[in-house]
Amino acid sequence: MSDIEVKVPQLPESVTDATLVAWHKKPGDRVDRDENLVDLETDKVMLEVPAPSAGVIKELKVEDGATVTSGQVLAIIDTSAAAAESAQQQAAPTQEAKTEAEPRASAKVAKLAPAARRMVEEHKLDPAAIAGSGRDGRVTKADVIQHLAKQEAAAPAAKPAKPSAPPADLPPVTGSRSEHRVPMTRLRARIAERLLQAQATAAMLTTFNEVDLTAVNEIRARYKDKFEKTHGVRLGYMSFFVKASIEALRKFPVVNASIDGNDIVYHEYYDIGVAVSTDRGLMVPVIRNAENLSFAEIEKAIATYAQKARDGTISLEELTGGTFTITNGGVFGSLMSTPILNPPQVAILGMHKIQERPVVINGEIKIRPMMYLALTYDHRIVDGRESVQFLVAIKEALEDPARLLLQL
Fold this sequence. Notes:
Number of domains: 3
Radius of gyration: 26 Å
Oligomer: single chain
């Protein structure tokens, strides 16, 4: 008999442990090499642990929900030919008895994101019936939630039992009063911890300004079709804001710095974090050396990272670091907000909803597409003068985009 141990992969240096979310196999099940056996969740990302070899699951060493560390043994696989052949023989009759729909369901399971797979198993859903919106048809957690909502809406309402008459002096109780308690995911708990840390350790202050996006809109309208045809990606607003932020950071290096004890660390590179909302919580993928990238390369990087974050396939390295962060609450309709710092960074730029408003230009009232900008900064090293001038520099670059080409 030949046994192989399935171990927790080496976790990144900054991650001490992980939570075992769900097993996808049980003792006696046959597995193929590189088939996903179990999902692990760290503070930032979901990890899949593949089978190191084909064989039969002999033993599971750790239960769902347990905390595990790098190198810990999770399961034992029997790789002997006899065990594998026996498992295949046991599976053969079952396979022949399956309907045509079941193989399609099995194929669809392989395209489930980890968080989606857990919900599918919890609710005993048929993954083949769920439309996937992720890359290559991958089913995300949001797809499962939407599927459940459709099922609930389509289900016939149960006829309520006739309630007894309430006392005359009390109004009748109507509507659902059910509760559903679930533990925080590790990611959500980590987000909460970092937000409290930022508020407790930084002297946060927010300054505001507004920007007229007429010029940016004209460029996008004029070149968006040719840009997408040439580069294979849409020309969005974010690349303009990344470029404008970099030029402002060049003028005010302290905004691109970080605090390490009693030292100020000035970064001579620009790793820009772009906040992405996912069904697991907010993630901030980092665009490395963004100062060396074109508009198209920035847009491609953002699109790739956003999809990977929503699919649960983004790596910890892609979420680590960053010297400055941009977050866009405008996609959800936010008109104005005060973003919270992403430590150890000392500043974060908040974008908001673009709204047509009357503004006075050269003594005349004009209707312009306006956006409020917010810069939250750590007042321990960033002064009010620098924060205000930093936002003015972004405003000037966006209202006259030629500055971005000339680095003025």
